[in-house]
Every structure is written in C-alpha cells, then in structure tokens.
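Reading group handout, session on sequence-to-structure problems. Before we discuss, look at one worked example. The prompt was deliberately terse, the way you'd type it at a terminal:

> structure valine--tRNA ligase

The input record follows.
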Amino acid sequence: MAKQYSPAAVEKSWYPWWEQSGYFVADASSTKPAFTIVLPPPNVTGALHIGHALTAAIQDTIVRWRRMSGYNVLWVPGMDHAGIATQVVVEKKIMRDSKRTRHDIGRENFVKEVWKWKNDHGSTILNQERRLGVSLDWSRECFTMDEQRSKAVTEAFVRLYEDRLIYRDHRLVNWDCVLRTAISDIEVDHKDIKERTLLKVPGYDTPVEFGVLTSFAYPLEGDLGEIVVATTRVETMLGDTGIAVHPEDKRYTHLHGKYAIHPFNGRRLPIVCDGILVDPKFGTGAVKITPAHDPNDFDVGKRHNLEFINILTNEGLINSNGGSTFEGMPRFKARVAVVEALQQKGLYRGAQNNEMRLGVCSRTNDVVEPMIKPQWYVNCNDMAKQALDVVVDESCKKIEIIPKQYTAEWRRWLENIRDWCISRQLWWGHRVPAWYVTLEDDQLKEFGVYADHWVVARNEEEAQSEANRIFGGKKFQMTQDPDVLDTWFSSGLFPLSVLGWPDNTADFRTFYPTSVLETGHDILFFWVARMVMLGMQLGGDVPFRKVYLHPMIRDAHGRKMSKSLGNVIDPLEVINGVTLENLHKRLEEGNLDPNELVVAREGQVKDFPNGIAECGADALRFALVSYTAQSDKINLDIQRVVGYRQWCNKLWNAIRFAMTKLGDNYVPPTNLNLDSLPFSCKWILSVLNKAICKTDTALESYEFSDACTAVYSWWQFQLCDVFIEAIKPYFMGDDKFSEERSAARDTLWICLDNGLRLLHPFMPYVTEELWQRLPQVAGNLAKKDSIMISEYPSAVKEWTNEEIENEMDLVETLVKSIRSIRADLPANERLGRKPAFAVCRTDAVGDVIRSHELEISTLASLSSFEVLAENDARLATCLVNVANEHFSTYLQQAQGSLNAEAEREKLIKRKDEIEKQRDTLQKKMNASSYQKVPKPIQDEDVKKLDKLLQELSIVEQAYENLEQH
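And the output record:
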C-alpha cells in the first residue's frame, strides 16, 4: 500500500469496473423486495453544480445502503430536455456561429440543430455525476424527449383531455418578450420597487423607469369633457378597448354608455359603470380596459365581449386598427414616446411614485408582461384534493414528507391551487397533440379563432379520424398546434414514464410506485406535487411513498451562491483541486460585467486564498451528507471537506497498520470465542454493535447527518483513537501476549470488514479500495467480489456488553484526565513518559481501574500507572486533576519541579465552581414550589447533588495532599 492516501489514485478505476460488472443493474424478475428511486432529471444544458452533488451524494447513500441490505434496487438516471433553457442556449449558439435567429433558419432546421447540440453535449452532466461514484442503472437511462417518454407525454395529454381535465382558454399569462413565450410562475422573479426606479432591461441601451403611476385623459365623444385614467404601463393604452368606471364614483357614473375617443387612432372606447368589471379593491375612479393587462388594473370580464388583442411583442407595438404612429417601436421606448405624445396633445395629467412588484424572467432577466393569450390548461382542483389527502389525511395517508415542516407548505400550495398552464410558445419540446380544424365554410379563417374546432389525438391519423367524426361531411384542413408542452408536464410524468408507462411493462409492475423521491424543497409544488397528481390520475397510485427534501446549499457565510459574488463552488474543482488562478479564469470565461468581475475575484481571494485542495469524491460526499441537519440551508465550508479528506488518510493508515499486524498468511476467523477475548476486543465489538444500530436506524428515518456521526465517531474515536492504540502492546514481540495477539488480529479484521461495509454507502471509492485489500475468508463464507454487493452490517446480539462499555467509559475518562494534566505542561515536558496515579472514591471503581492498568498506561502514554490510597505520600509531588465524582488523577513530576502553590490555586478555583453549582441546585430544591416538580426531575436533581458533593470531597482531599508538600 502507498504510504499516503491519494483520492485520484483510489478513484480512477473502480467506477468502470462496477459498471462493467453489472452491479448497478436492477432485475425486474428478482424475488427480492423492490426499492426504487428516480434521479431528478437534470437539464440537458447543465453542468454539474454543488446542488447536483448534494442530490447525488444523498441518493447514492440511500441506494447503496438498500442494495447491501438485500433489496432489488433500481435507481433510474434521466435527462430533462429543459425546453426554455435549451432553446436559449442553442439560439445563442446559432447567433454566435452564423449571426442568424431561429426564425431565419425555420422551425424544422432549428429543431435539428437542438437535437445535434443535445447529442454532442447532452450527456455532460451525467458523465460528471459518474465522477461522484453514483451507482445509477445506466441500462435504463432515459431522456424526456426520447421515443418512450414522448409516447407517455402524448398519452397523458390525450387521457387527461378525454377525462375533461385538459382544456383551452384565454387567460392572463406571464409573457417573456425575449423568448416570446408564456413562462411558469417558477421562472418569474419579483423585484419590490418602492418608488420611481431606473432598471437595466435587456435590449435597451438606457435604463427604463419603473415605480411610476402615470395619469392621462381621454376626451369624451360629443364634447362632454374628459375621463382620467392611471396606469403603470402607459404604453398599453394604445391597445385600450374600453374604460370602466367604479359604480360608486359620482364623478363618472353618468357617463355609462357613452364613448371616449382614442387620441391616436380615433377608436371609440365604450364607458361602462355597471359594476361588473370593477373590483372594489382598486378603489373608486376609472380604469382602462386593455388586452395587455396592467397588474394594477383589474381582470376584464368577458360578458361585455370587448375586443382582446395582444399588442405587445419584442419587435414593437402593433395597433389593432392597423397603422400607428408607434408601430415597430420597442415597448419601453414607446413608454417614453407615448408620454411625450400625450403631453403634446395636452392629455398628460402627471405621474407619481407607485410601490409595485415587478416580474422579471429568471432566465432572460427581461421584464415579464401580463398578457391575455389562449393556452392549454390542466384542471387541478380534484387532483390537488387527492394529492393533499394522501399526505395529510390519516384515513388515506400514503405519502410521508420529510422533514415534516414542509407538510404545511404542501397544504398551502394545494389548497390554493390554480389551473396549470401547460402550453409554451417554443419550438423545442413535446408538440401539443392537438389539431385545429379550419372548415371550408368558417366565416373567420384565423388559426384557433373557434374554441370548438380543436381535436386532440395521439397522432395525425387519429386526429383526422376524430375530425371526420365531429365534422362529418364537411370539408376542412387541419393544422397541429405549434406550441409545445411545459417541461414540468413531461417531468411530472417521470416516475411513470421511466418505468415504461403507458405500457404494462415488467419494470412498471415491479418498481411502481417508487420508494422515495429525494429533491430540493424549492420545487415541492412545481415538480413533486405535479408528480403526485399525475401519478394518481394516470398510474393508479401515488408515485412514491416518501418525499425527502434536502436543504439548499449556500456558501460558508450563509450567502446564496452567485457567479457575481465569486462564491459558486464547482464540485469537480473540490474533487480534483483547483488553483486560485484557475478559479479566476473560470470567472473570466463567464459573462460577468467588469464591475461584477472585480467583486467576484475579490470574493474568491477571500474565500479561497490558496485555491481549493484536492479532496476527492468521497470526502465531498461525506461532507455534503453530514451537513443535512442544518435546517433548510447548508452553509458549506470547504475546509470541512478538506477535514474529511484528511480523515480518509486516517482510514488508510488504519488498514496499513492492520496489514502489518495481520501478516501475509493470516486467515480470518469463521467465528469468535467471545469469552476468551481481551477487554479491549470485547469493548470494540460492543460499540461496533451500537454504531451499526445507530447508523441503520438513522438511515431508515432519513437522518443522514446522524448516520454520518455514528459511523465517523466509531471509526475515529473508538477504533482508531482507542482500540488500535490499546492493542499495540500485544504486538511488541512478547510471548506472554500470544493469545491476546491472536484475538486482537481476529477482532481487528472483523472491525475493519464491518466498518468498511458500514461506511461504504457514504464513501464508496476508498472503502472498496481498502476492503479489497483485507484477507479473504475461505470456503463458502468467502467475500463477494465487491463491497457494494456485500451485506450491510447487522448487529450481533452476543457482542453487546454494557458492563464492558461502562468499564471503558471509566478508563477513557481517566485517560482524558491525565492527558488534560499533560496538556498544561510546558511544550518541552509533554512528550516524556511519566508515572501516573489515580485515587478512587470507592473500592469498586478502584478494582475496575486496577484491572485496566495496561490499557491506561498505553492510551495515556505513561511509564507506569497505579491506583493509590488517598493519603499516599507520593501524591504530594504530583500534578492533580479531579476527573469526576469517582476519582482524581495525578501525574508525577521531577523532584522539586512541582509548583504546589499553583496547583492549590487550581483546586481552590475548582472547589468554588462546584460549591456554586451545589448552592444553586440546593436553592432550587429547597424552594416551596419544588414539590410541584415532576418526580423524575427531582430524582435526577438528587443524583446531580450527590455527584457534586462527591466531587467536592475529592477536591478537598487532593488539596490536603498538596498541603503535605
């Protein structure tokens, strides 16, 4: 074995061997109980980030543990086509390469370009995840737009439509003018604006003004005066189709049925004040009716049959009557131009600060427009009720959400659900399986104008047949809806589609419902709830039994990770290590503006002055999983990862030690004679049992941080720090320890074998490397070929020995007490071996301590150790420490080197501390209200008081011993 652990050397070859050996592949015909999990499909555009690493680390820990625990484990990898994100990336590439837009090359050629890009780059992130050691079943890898998944999407749409759960309607949507599509709420960020504010908007050279309420007047027909309206988006007045007046506003109610005249196109605008259109929350006054609604206005009612025309596009404003002074003008330039024109016409009535929330697209940073557009919707009411009940209704509960606090958020979302807009005006994605039928005798020929002319079908042939049935005998033409479906629709089907639904496959019969869904809490509604609704509606059952929501990762200071702050952590840079220079280089290759780049570089210098050391995948995984106890956020400190990298070296050295002690011809035992084992061997097996139970229980309850603590504590503080040190005297060559040496070898092998298997789900690479080096058991008990297909450790009842553990607790307390004395010595006096003593409070404790003088001398690095009577003269030349109520410890000093006065001062200080605690406790127990305290607490207080009194007695005796000096 190499003298030092090297992550790169250990991790370079195991993964290909695991994969080629078929260890990751599930068997649909297996009789083992199934355990299924799907990897939340990362975007095809993506590169590995720290959030992916957290997901991979947690899920692979679960998967490897379940596989070793005897389950038929299926972990399905997949990739999401990421409609908007991918389209944006490819559009930018085409523009960069050929200075053309997607409209220049056409839809068919553009889609070909996206597929080409996907085939060239689409597997990047999954290949990166291999570097983390994830044991995914790559034989079942899927893509949300491959043939089987596309079939599932079409089938789902058709079935939901046939069940009258999908319909088409005109509604208000979030419209992105850069992407020219409706976007979902999750893709909209909101900026709170308090007053007049200038903001940079994509496509505009100068900042745009927001937070202003502009008032202007419409002249009334027949010289009846004017009516004043106010809006935060004055440019939308070009498409105004009417004016509504609050029915209680006496200034204007007499104008009901009259008309205003549009100042720029002469259109007659009807004035209504019958109360149908006005929501009282907007107060009295007049508000304009416009196709592109102002969020500060109201939703237009349809009973007035007012004209709805979308006038806002990225290219500019288009007037509904054809021809306009402002035609072709970008919307925010039109905002300025319209105000100027209103001023020139004498219709401008001023502006004032207006507090508002501005919607901004998270992908393009463009200001989102609220617009009325026809879209496809899913009616979620009944499905949401069912999805809520299976989580919160004990009579039909099928899903557990972990941590429990997110159940309240689940309730909040589903009790206030709105119908789901599932269509997008993109070219990349699943084409909506709906065709519009234009009849030869239709009066209006515009696409989509008649709501009852749509047919939904699985393919064009089926659509033709359905249209013939509906419009029998009539001549018509069919055109498929150019829109595609929201990416969340296909990803919402993921637990179904990855298992072969809608076909009745062996995988679907064996592995659905899946066992657990693990993901970030930020998409609890947008993905998790939709999977539950669609799974129950289409799959006949919930898609998973548990939902585990991991925290969001922030930097060590608690800040959200941002390229502009320079605190983004690339997991591959943690695994492989990276210099500060290369961290800067990554920033410079991004798209930060010069000012942001300066801030980001400074942030990197502060956080990573020496770059990031090579940590390896195992250390990164263990750190991430151990962090999961931190509420809903993880403040990731890279130094903690570095610490686990150093811990891997400790594991490495433990195995190297074992190799030298076991010898070349060592044969592991088939069983152990527990009665004949030395004390330290009995103890390490007993605490190993506890570590196994704690780890298993913690994993079962998804308390991953507790599981990490249980494994780490046993390896670090019990095996390495105590057991391996305690058995070293057995290997010093003295024949008197031959039996102990043999027992220690066997116990050491059992501990390493079990300990590595216990740790494997968390740290797969280093455990495989070290486990393969352990000697093999012969015969039918021979090891499996890989640790990952070996059995996960289970407790051995016979190993548990509470008496032995209690004795070792006394030993460890005594050793720590002696080490504490040594730590106070000058640096040049700490290393030498010296005699040490203990004075015990009771004979029983004294007998236990005497029986372990060898272990104490070894662990405390003493030349000798002895239990003395409390009046022994040798104690007067010793440094003293009161360990607890059971004993005090003494470390002998060279003649004349003891500073007795300093030792007495320490004891007086300790005595004062104990007396203060005693007095506080006695005052509490003597209070008149103490009788109301529950008896278990009173009993505990009695024990505390007794402990303090015993410690006080030991301190006083130690003081007397020093007085003799």
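Points for discussion. First: Residues 276-284, 291-323 have pLDDT under 50 and may be disordered. Second: The first helix runs from residue 7 to 11.
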